[in-house]
Amino acid sequence: MMTHSEKQEIIDLEQKFWRAMVDKDVEGSVAMLAEESIVAGAQGTALLRHDDYRGMARQGESHWQLKSFQFDDVKVMFPSKDVAVIAYTVTEEMEVEGEALTLKAADATTWIRDDGSWLAALHTESVLGDPFGRDRIRAS
């Protein structure tokens, strides 16, 4: 059974990772990642090593910037003592190619405890909307 402080530790870690993205602190983000991690989202899936993440983060800097974020409906579970899973909805205030954008998504991260430190091993993001994508279909 997880304690409130254990649950809060995972929430704090997740927020710290997001703040690192807002602050463009690539090395701060890398320090929170497992040596190999997986990301899955609208662009597909990727297996990232630390240098891959650095390259992806630096490449993205010219196209988008996260300005702020807000978590809601946060859920945390511990399938084992060294694995934590957090899921939440997030509202992201961004600038994408010079345009302001608000994005709402459902995200989840799996954290693993390695040598006493929690590291992110898997992160997923699903843009909220119609589950069949009908809200994104455009008539031709």
UniProtKB/TrEMBL annotation:
Gene3D superfamilies xref list: 3.10.450.50
DUF4440 domain boundaries: 10-119
UniProt-recorded name of the protein: DUF4440 domain-containing protein
Organism: Aminobacter aminovorans (Chelatobacter heintzii)
Taxonomic classification: Bacteria, Pseudomonadati, Pseudomonadota, Alphaproteobacteria, Hyphomicrobiales
